[in-house]
Amino acid sequence: MKKLRPVFATAVLSVLFVVPTWSQIKQVDFIKGGFDDGQVMFKEYLAPYANSFAANLNGGWYNSAKPHKLGGFDITLTLNTSWAPPSARTMDLTGIGLSDAATIQGDPITPTIAGKKTDTRPDIAYQETYTDLNGNQQTVTLASYTTPNGTGMNAVPLPMAQLGIGLPLGTDVSVRYLPNLNFGDYGSIGLWGVGLKHSILQHIPGLKHLPVLDVSVQGGYTSLKTFANVNFMPSDYPEAVDLVNDALLFNDQKIQVGVTAWTVNLIASQTLPVISFYEGIGYSNSKANVGLYGNFPVARLETDPSNDHFGDVVVAEKDVYKDPFDVTIENHKDLRLNVGMRLKLGVLTIQFDYTKANYSVFTTGLGISFR
C-alpha cells in the first residue's frame, strides 16, 4: 500500500490545483444585468468545466475486459484528465442570447473559464431612461462590468478511488468514490459511482476458452458535486445607493455544480503474462446543473417620484433575491473510443489509457488486483 501513497498524493494535489480556479468567479459580476442575462453568462462561461468534469466521470472504469473470478477484487486509484476543445475556450457575446438591454463595448469574443487569461476583455453595460421632475429625459447606468477572465487552464484533472469485486457468471461490480474534500474558502468536491461489467465471450461457443482474448460489456453511472464560495454585495454596484441594512443577508453565497454521467461500452482486451492491451467503443451521456445559492442583490432605477431617491440607482432589501437560478447545461452525448494498456507486476497494476471524444480524457491508475 505504500506504493499507492504517491499516486494518491498526486491525485489530491491535482484537485488542489483545479478547485482554486473557481475563485476566478468569486465576484459574480455577470448578474449585474439581471438574472436572465446572468443565467446566460453563467451557463456559457462555466460549461467547459462542467463538460470536462462529465467526461472525467465516464473515464477510467476499466483496465481489462476480463472479469474477476468469484471473490476476486481490485482497488485502483485513478486520475482522469479531460480538456476542453478549442471551440469551448471562447464565447461570442453577440450569439449567446443576451437581452437587448445589454450594450457590449469592445470585441465581443471573450474567454470562457477554460480560456486564456487576457487583459483585453469586453465590457457590458445596462442603462435605463426616465423622465425627471422637470419633464426632461435622463439616462442612467444601472450596472456595468468587465466579462470574467479565463483561467489559462483548459485541462481538468479528477482523482477517484475504485473497488471492483468478482461476482458469479463472469460479472464484476464496481464502486467508485471521492470523499467530500473541503478546500476552505475555495469550496469542496466529492463524487460516487457504480458500474457493472459482464463477459460476453463466455456465451460464444468455441471462443470462451481462448487464453488471451476477452470481450465484455460495461456500464457505469457517476455523480459529482462541487461548489465554490462567492462574495457579491450591494457595494459591488458603484453606481447604486446601498439601502440594505442587514449585511448578514449575504453570508453563505455559493456556486454549486452537480454533474451526473453514464456510459455503456463494448470492450476487448488481450492479456499477456505482464502486459495487457484493451480497447473500447461506447456511448456516454451527461447532465450538469449549475446554481447560484444564497441571497444576491440587484440594482434598479427608483421611478417613484415621491421617493427621496427618485432617479437614483438603488439596492434595497426588496431587491435581494434568494437562490436566484439553477441552470441546466446541455446534455453532452458522445461516441467514445478508448485504447489503453495495463502492466501487472504481481498484485500491483499500472494503467494508462486515452479516450477520444469531444472532451477527450487521459487516464492513469495504480492499484492492486487479486484473482
| Residue fraction in strands | over 45%
Q: What is the H/E order?
A: HHEEEEEEEEEEEEEEEEEEEEE
The unreliable regions are: 1-11
Number of domains: 1
Structural class: mainly beta
What is the count of helical runs? 2
Mean pLDDT: 87
The percent range for helix content is: under 10%
Outline: elongated
- Major beta sheet summary: 10 strands, antiparallel, barrel
Structure summary, number of beta strands: 21
* Separation of the first and last Cα atoms: 18 Å
Strand arrangement within the widest β-sheet reads 1-7-8-9-10-12-13-19-20-21
How would you characterize this protein structure?
This protein is mainly beta and 371 residues long. It has one domain. Helices cover 10% and strands 49% of the residues. It has a 10-stranded antiparallel β-barrel. It has a 3-stranded antiparallel sheet with strand order 3-5-6, with no helix packed on it. A 3-stranded mixed sheet has the order 11-16-15, with no helix packed on it. The N terminus is likely disordered.
SSE layout and pairing:
Blueprint: H1 5-18, H2 35-57, E1 73-83, E2 90-92, E3 102-105, E4 109-111, E5 123-131, E6 137-146, E7 155-167, E8 171-182, E9 188-199, E10 213-229, E11 241-242, E12 254-271, E13 275-293, E14 295-297, E15 300-301, E16 313-315, E17 320-322, E18 325-329, E19 334-345, E20 348-356, E21 361-370
Parallel strand pairs: 11-16
Antiparallel strand pairs: 1-7, 1-21, 2-4, 3-5, 5-6, 7-8, 8-9, 9-10, 10-12, 12-13, 13-18, 13-19, 14-17, 15-16, 19-20, 20-21
